[in-house]
Amino acid sequence: MVKPILKWAGGKRQLLDELYSRFPESYSHYHEPFFGGGALFFDIEPDNGTINDTNTRLINFYKQARDHPDELINLLQSFDDPESDPDSNRRFSDTNRKGKEIKNYYYQQRELFNNRPHGDEYDELEEAALLLYLNRTCYNGLYRENSSGGFNVPIGRYSNPDWVREDEIRKASRVLEDTDIRNTGFEYITEVAEEGDLVYFDPPYKPMSSTAYFTDYSAEGFGKEDQEHLRDVAQELNENGVNVILSNSGVMYEIYDEAGFHVEVEGATRSINSDGDNRDEVDEIIATNITPEERQRAGQQGLADF
């Protein structure tokens, strides 16, 4: 079992037992089209399959962790404490692009990270290192982009933040070695998933209320039509003999129930919330086409027939 490297909104570490209880007795390849922090993937440590996310910088991070772990770790080890003074030898040591004062090292790193959406040249390895650094030092580990695609989370308050994550990177590099890492829409799965494979969908959730914005980890969002299209893709996979497990917010119960999936409500505590003292349990569904009779026996957690 490998720990996820990144904190990520909607992480599934607290839902792992419930997800495993829906696994089939055996499956061939494992696919995760909405990867995020990859809690289930890293817990399974599959030998092959695909992972995907539409967040280009997130996918770049996993590719760098897989292909260049030593270089990534070395670069992370060269970074300073977020509260320290900016590096005078790098860009944005005084002001950001808009002329606003850069007060500390964190905000300089954030401005350097945002080279990609602003059209500047960027280095993929450095961008990956900056993503992990910001993820471990920003406010509450939140990933959020503005409408222009720029990361805009303020600095967090940590006594001894670990942004190197050497052990996690090395283990993740090993697990990802034979994994096809993609940066595209979730529809790709209809072309690669074969009969007997297992697909886990963990899309950006439809908000439980008008004040909840679980889709705002990227500038694009994930709306009603996307949710319905995902349901249709899940149905297509079911017709092709692919094992499907999907998690979503409780308000999505009906559309999967009506589509013929086995749907149950589970409670899940949000791991990321703007109010750290208000991480209440919210209703979440798990939908699957795997019947109770086809599911693995208790105690088989994480085993697959590759």
UniProtKB/TrEMBL annotation:
A GO molecular-function descriptor: site-specific DNA-methyltransferase (adenine-specific) activity
One GO BP: DNA restriction-modification system
A Pfam family: MethyltransfD12
Leading EC class: transferase
InterPro entries xrefs: Ade_MeTrfase_dom_2, DNA_methylase_N6_adenine_CS, M_m6A_EcoRV, MeTrfase_D12, SAM-dependent_MTases_sf
Keywords on record: Methyltransferase, S-adenosyl-L-methionine, Transferase
PROSITE patterns tied to this protein: N6_MTASE
Catalysed transformations (reactions): a 2'-deoxyadenosine in DNA + S-adenosyl-L-methionine = an N(6)-methyl-2'-deoxyadenosine in DNA + S-adenosyl-L-homocysteine + H(+)
Record Gene3D superfamilies: Adenine-specific Methyltransferase, Domain 2, Vaccinia Virus protein VP39
EC number in record: 2.1.1.72
Family: Belongs to the N(4)/N(6)-methyltransferase family.
Name recorded for this polypeptide: site-specific DNA-methyltransferase (adenine-specific)
Species for this entry: Haloarcula quadrata
